[in-house]
Amino acid sequence: MVAAETGEPPGTAGAGPEPLRARVRPVLFVYALRGLIVWPLPIGVAVWADSLTGYHLDTPLPLERGSWPYVLVSASPAVALGVAVLLRLALALAPAAAADGLGPWAAVRRSWSLTWTRTGVPRVLVLALPLAAVAAGVLRLAVQAALPLRPLVRELLEPATGNFFAAYYAGILAPVVVGVLVTAALVLPVACTAFAVLHDRLRPPVRRG
Q1: Which of 37, 46, 102, 161 has CB 3.0 to 4.6 Å from 106, enough for a Cys bridge?
Q2: Which 3-state string (H, E, C) describes the chain?
Q3: Which residues, 6+ apart, have CB-to-CB distance to 38 below 8 Å?
Q4: Other beta carbons within 10 Å of 22
Q5: Long-range pairs for 103-106: beta carbons < 8 A, 24 or more residues apart
Q6: pLDDT of 7-44, one tens digit each?
Q7: What is the pTM of this model?
Q8: What distance, in Å, lies between the first and last C-alpha atoms of the chain?
C-alpha cells in the first residue's frame, strides 16, 4: 500500500534499515503512550479499593462490610476496567496512524476521532470482538498444551535453587508464559494488520495535486 501511494516500484518502499527504524520508532512510542493512558486508571482504582475493602491481617477495614459504601467501592475496579477497555478500543487505531507518519499524540488523536463516529464504533467492535475471542481460545489451547512443563520446570529449578516454593510457582507460571508468547506470536500480526487496514478504510481520503 505504501509503494502504491508513493509511486515507487513494489519492494523498494521503506528499503534499508534506517527508513524501517524511522517508521517503527513512533509506533513503539504510541504503544507506550497508549499504555500510560489506558492502564493507570484500573490499576489505581484497584489499589485504592483494596486499601478500603481488602483483607489485611490485624488491620480493621475502613468500610463496614456489607454497607453501601463497601459495595460501591468493591465494584469500582470492575467499572474502571470497563472504562479502560473502552479507552483501549478507542485507541486501537493509534499504531496504524503512527505507521502512517503521525507523531504519537497526533496518532492517538486520530484514532480517537476515527473511532468515535457512527461508522467507526461498529467497525472497531466487529473487528475487536472476534480477535479477542480468537486470542482467548489460542491462549487456552497453548496453556493446556504447555501443562507438561510444570513438573519439568519444578524438577529442574528445585535442585538448582534449593527453594521448593520458587520452583513450585515457576512451574505454575511456565505454561502461562508459554501460552502468552505463543498467543502473541500468532494473533498480534493478524490483529495489527487488520487494524491497519481498518485505519486505512476510516481515514479521510488524501487529496493529491
Answers
A1: 102
A2: CHHHHHCCCCCCCCCCHHHHHHHHHHHHHHHHHHHHHHCHHHHHHHHHHHHHHCCCCCCCCCCCCCCHHHHHHHHHHHHHHHHHHHHHHHCCCHHHHHHCCCCHHHHHHHHHHHHCCCCHHHHHHHHHHHHHHHHHHHHHHHHHHCCCHHHHHHHHHHHHHCCHHHHHHHHHHHHHHHHHHHHHHHHHHHHHHHHHHHHHHHCCCCCCC
A3: 84, 87, 88, 91
A4: 12
A5: 103/26, 104/26, 104/29, 104/30, 104/33, 105/33
A6: 444 444 445 455 667 778 888 999 999 999 999 999 99
A7: 0.75
A8: 19
d(CA 202, CA 118): 11
Which grid coordinates belong to 71? 459495595
Distances (CA, A) of 179 to 60, 74, 86: 39, 30, 25
Which position has the grid cell 521503506? 14
Compute and round to an integer the Cα radius of gyration of the chain.
Answer: 23
134: amino acid identity, one letter: V
Taking only the tens place, the pLDDT of each residue in 120-171 is 999 999 999 999 999 999 999 999 999 999 989 888 888 887 888 888 888 8
Distances, alpha carbon 55 to alpha carbons 52, 73, 77, in Å: 9, 14, 16
**Which residues fall within 8 angstroms of residue 102, CB to CB, at 6 or more apart?**
26, 110
